[in-house]
Amino acid sequence: MNILHSNGIASWQQRINNYLFNSYTIHPLHAACCRILYAAYLLFIAIERCDWLGTYPQVFYVPPPLSISYFAESFPPTWFFHFINISIIASLVCLLVGYKSKWAAISTGILILLFTSFQHAFGKINHIILLTSFPFVLASINSGAILSIDSVLTKEQAFKKAPNSSWVLVYYSLIIGFAMFSAGFMKCPQWLYFDTQATKHYIIFNQMVANRTALLSNMALQINSAVFWEIADYLVVILEVGFLGAIVHAKLFRAWLFWALLFHFGVLLCLNIPFTHHLFAFALFINWQHLNRLSANKLNAALITIDAYFVYLKPYHLIPLIGLLCLVLYQYGSLYDMVCTLLAIDTSLGIDILLFAIATSIATLLVIDNIRAYIAK
Description:
Elements: H1 2-22, H2 28-46, H3 78-97, H4 101-119, H5 129-140, H6 149-153, H7 166-185, H8 198-208, H9 217-221, H10 226-246, H11 250-271, H12 278-283, H13 288-294, H14 298-307, H15 318-331, H16 335-342, H17 350-376
Helix pairs in contact: 1-7, 2-3, 3-4, 3-15, 4-5, 5-7, 7-10, 10-11, 11-17
């Protein structure tokens, strides 16, 4: 009996170890691409000034518990937020080119956490936990092993056997799963009543009250079927609540991520609410070998060719880039905002739809190829 009991425990331990350390693999090029895309998106598109926070009086200061801002009595002075602005740009530039990658990722995460903590001190929070936590994941998966200044300075062999980072993604999948589950749990049971259509209500409220018109909102509201909207409500709740259960298996979790990608693309098109920062979290779980195989091995070859040019980058080259981006930030916001302002381009349909369209296209190709391979068996 003791032998059977011991074998049972050993079997469960083996399953847990296999789940933690073999569920996901992180190719050095995969980690490097996630690092570069994340830093480029924040630097050139999504970055925003935070010095306006220092102009508000204490009466507006209502920080949530368990946040950094909770330990302060009011908003810090404006110079503090100028320091945060410049520090975030410097950290993101270092992260972009892979200079001191690990520490750049950690400092980026801390600075964004600090900024968002005071941003949420008005009493309203945004759903950016994946954006804030992503740099800490980058710091844990050796994202600077290639396509970086670090790899040139240390002459590190990027493809040598690296520490197993699967457990990092397992824990990150738990963060994603719990974040989505908490969103879905709050929708129960209101979204599940048959006499209400919550999804349709949000589209109407968004368009009529919030005055935020989306690309497909008018088309969506032409659908008058209560059954359609009830199915939409149930699918949203099942998606979000089911995320916590999907983390138990890598393939199931990837399937749930694809579903979430389609869902968030639909939210953008029908509600004009962008969750673009979720794309980077989802991208970490792509099967890189499969993606490279789908490109006929041209993806790895192209990136290795680009890596050769990093030898010409020196740390002192970053100083003028940081200065230029600081000037752009204080004058326009981001490089994307600057280009749109100078060219008088309407940004309402903007870059978010383009990024989601690209991500959805790549994910769909991977799914179709997986289905084709499964049928071929």
